[in-house]
Amino acid sequence: MCSPPFNRHPPPWEAVVLVANYLDAKTLAAASCVCKSWYVSMSFDHLWIPICDAEFPSISNLYSAAAMVDPTVNYRRLYALGYNSFKRRCQIPPKPLLSLDDLLFTFTVGDRYGDSRLGNLAKHGGDLLNIDPNGVFRFDIEFQHDDVSSTVRVNDNILEGVKVTWHVVLKGWKGVFTMVDCGAGQQSFRPQVTKGWFTAELPSPGCCSGGNGSGLVAEVGLELGWRGEGCGEVRVEKVSVGMMSVVNWRYVSVDDGLRYLQHFLVT
Fold first, then answer.
1. Cα 257 to the chain's mean position, in Å?
2. What is the spatial distance between Cα 112 and Cα 198, in angstroms, rounded to a whole number?
3. What is the 3-state secondary structure (H, E, C) of the chain?
4. What is the pTM of this model?
5. Which of the four pLDDT bands, split at 50, 70 and 90, describes residue 147?
6. What is the mean pLDDT of the chain?
7. Is 237:224 a contact under the CB 8 Å cutoff?
8. Binning pLDDT at 50, 70 and 90, where does residue 15 land?
9. Fewest beta carbons less than 10 Å away: which of 73, 97, 103, 139?
10. C-alpha to C-alpha distance for 151 and 174, rounded to whole angstroms
11. Would you say 237 and 225 are in contact if contact means Cβ atoms under 8 Å apart?
12. Bridge partners of 255?
């Protein structure tokens, strides 16, 4: 039995337009690549308006403004803009160039005048043990006795004017970035108040280093230990550090924190 001859004639234009009403965006885009006539048939606004309204309504609202500036912009073009923007927003950012193993965290705690020093600490990022299980940029670091250069004697068990400095140093001392360098203002420490927090807004990275901030805040939590009564002695027991977003006041991920730091430490 002979097979019927292959029909080399394309379907009528009316049939193409009728079928196009039942196609989704991906199929419409693929069909428009067949030939010029199909491109025209698959680009009519009545095909793309419901798709654009359903998937990217805010982009669809640009049509009126676009028509005043460039009358050739149609809903097919607006859908392509919305789709490409959506894909870029969903892209997974690349892995940071740095790792915690490449960093050294250094801390200096004293009074704001530099007359007394409560403690110095240097901690390699790879040696951090208390990493948050949720993978956020927040770490608790214990001060060992050997890390503390001195203890400070205070009168009336009140310690005021504490200053904290937190630096992040690139391995091999190839770069340094200051995360926090500030005092506690009117905050004071005493045996009943052993914890305090220090925060600093971080600058914008790279080409965005204008007057606007980065939307990130570095924080240092300080916990002191007291010994004795009256003229007691005080020393640092623990520091807690982190990097937070001011948008939702949550800690950023470790990878996001490393990506931020590489703007200042990697050239």
1. 7
2. 13
3. CCCCCCCCCCCCHHHHHHHHCCCCHHHHHHHCCCCHHHHHHCCCHHHHHHHHHHHCHHHHCCHHHHHHHCCCCCHHHHHHHHHHHHHHHHCCCCCCCCCHHHEEEEEEEEECCCCCEEEEEEEEHHHCCEECCCCECEEEEECCHHHCCCCEECHHHCEECEEEEEEEEECCCCCEEEEEEEECCCCEEECCECEEEEEEEEECCHHHCCCCEEEEEEEEEEEEEEECCCCCEEEEEEEEEEEEECCCCEECEHHHHHHHHHHHHCC
4. 0.69
5. very low
6. 81
7. yes
8. confident
9. 97
10. 32
11. yes
12. none
Angle between helices 75-90 and 45-55 (to 10 degrees): 30
Express each pLDDT in 21-73 by its tens digit.
889 999 998 988 888 888 888 888 999 999 999 999 988 888 888 888 888 88
Residue 149: pLDDT band (50, 70, 90) is very low
Tokens 């060992």 belong to residue = 144
pLDDT of residue 151: 58
Q: pLDDT by residue (tens digit) across 83-99?
A: 999 998 888 888 899 99
In sequence order, the 6+-apart residues with CB closer than 8 A to the CB of 151 are 118, 227, 233, 234, 235
Q: Both ends of the chain: CA-CA distance in Å?
A: 74
Q: Which two tokens stand for residue 108?
A: 């200096």
Q: Which residue has the tokens 């885009």?
A: 29
What is the torsional sign of CA 153, 159, 160, 165? positive
